[in-house]
Amino acid sequence: MLAPACSYEALVAGFRWDIPARLNMAEQACDGWARREPDRVAIIDHASGAGVTYAELALLSRRVQAALVARCVGPGDRVGVLLSQSPQCAAAHLACWRMGAISVPLFMLFREDALRARLTDCGARVVVTDDEGAGMLAPFDLDVLCERDLPADGAVGPAVETGPDTPAVLIYTSGTTGKAKGALHGHRVLTGHLPGVEMSHDFLGQPSDVLWTPADWAWIGGLFDVLMPGLALGVPVVAARMRRFDLDDCARIVLEHSVRNVFFPPTALRMMKAADMRLQGLRSVASGGEPLGAEMLIWGRDAFGVTINEFYGQTECNMVASSCSALFDARPGCLGRAVPGFDVAVIDAAGQVTDGEGDIAVRRGCASMMLEYWQNPQATADKFRGAWLVTGDRGVVEDGFIRFVGREDDVITSAGYRIGPAEIEDCLLTHPGVATVGVVGKPDALRTEIVKAYVVPKSGVTIAAEELQSWVKERLASYSYPREITFVEALPMTVTGKVIRKELKAKAAAETT
């Protein structure tokens, strides 16, 4: 845990990474607690209302592990985890890590094409899921493991010896070109998240802290900004699946389980603000994904009685900057200050730190930085500029605060999801009536951006927008379908035949004015 400090400067000065040569996230997040305090509550299961102790979570994860061993899964093998917030989801990841396998979180809202792309790319041996997920996986030739298939005793051998850089989890992220890329992280990734999580919750781990997020555990924001850090710090984590964010359900979860610490994505906060919703009893509220602005921060203080702490990171290197109202006042429009242990700067095209606007970057050597993109050395090399991992966002540094300027790439940020346009374009191009297509983000007051598609139909073909929307919904994910479609005769192209998304983005932005 972060050492208590009276100022941000003292916090940074007193911090050092302490990463042992032997490190396993199952030990960090569960097994150590199960030995020391077996009856301590690890997860509060909203579905049943029961508290799951560390001893019970350890047993459940060992039952999953025994079933995986019986299926000949071993160190380095990839195991899909197609589960939403639940004790079973946590147990599946812990089981993989304890046995040296690589867990691959998968989103329950994915459809066949999105699942196929990820499962094929990673070469998953087995997918741990529930009955709903088993139905989704029916078209695949995969070994599917449901809870009913687990042995009763969970008798397994000793944990596999792993180190900080032993591959542990493969999280897919979307980019602007090509297929979704898998960011491969080692067992140090949990340690790397802890300082930023503690900081964004005004030193998480205080007596009676209880942590929850509506964000799904299939994403790095739910899995490593909430679930695993909470377990590692001994803070009970509420498991409450939300198919869609609902204000009444949100209030009920917070009240029923005496939630004190919440990570709310910006879209959830905007919905709450629009409904003038109030929540009592919270000690900390964190948010990340896109800047909130002064008006939202002012409203948050009134609605929650606390200052919303904004944090910043991405799947490849997360929790690198944060606000911390316990130490300093938030600065609207800024992403916070560098988390202890992270060197975050703005660099120029030559990879040199600059005082002006440039690329927000993180120096190599921090614990939450990915090992590589899975089986993609060129993409890995392209992500770095000398000693720096380049985030793809533009910014400036003001008195130690990192001010966000805009995105260098074309990733669409919608309702807290980062959506790659290439995957949607590829999906639309499989429709028999589509000749070519360009997908961009269109500014939206509620979702930050919505997915907008400009479609050129094949000659003589008439297509309804609703048909193309359903086409994407059925094949990718329900959140990534184009909410708006405009049919055009031609798209702006480069001489090499690439869509000039910059012009389409300008066109979409002009439509909002």
TrEMBL record:
Q: Where would one find the signal peptide in this protein?
A: none
Q: Biological process (GO) annotations?
A: acyl-CoA metabolic process; fatty acid biosynthetic process
All residue ranges annotated as the AMP-dependent synthetase/ligase domain in the record: 33-374
Protein EC: 6.2.1.-
Sorted alphabetically, the keyword list is: ATP-binding, Ligase, Nucleotide-binding
Task: Report if keyword Repressor is assigned.
Answer: no
Q: Which Pfam families match?
A: AMP-binding, AMP-binding_C
User: Which molecular function GO terms apply here?
Assistant: ATP binding; CoA-ligase activity; fatty acid ligase activity; fatty-acyl-CoA synthase activity
Give the AMP-binding enzyme C-terminal domain ranges: 423-498
| Principal EC category | ligase
* Source organism, top-level taxon: Bacteria
Q: PANTHER family given for it?
A: ACYL-COA SYNTHETASE MEDIUM CHAIN FAMILY MEMBER 3 (PTHR43605:SF10), ACYL-COENZYME A SYNTHETASE (PTHR43605)
Q: Which family does it belong to?
A: Belongs to the ATP-dependent AMP-binding enzyme family.
Q: What is this protein called?
A: Propionyl-CoA synthetase
Species of origin: Antarctobacter heliothermus
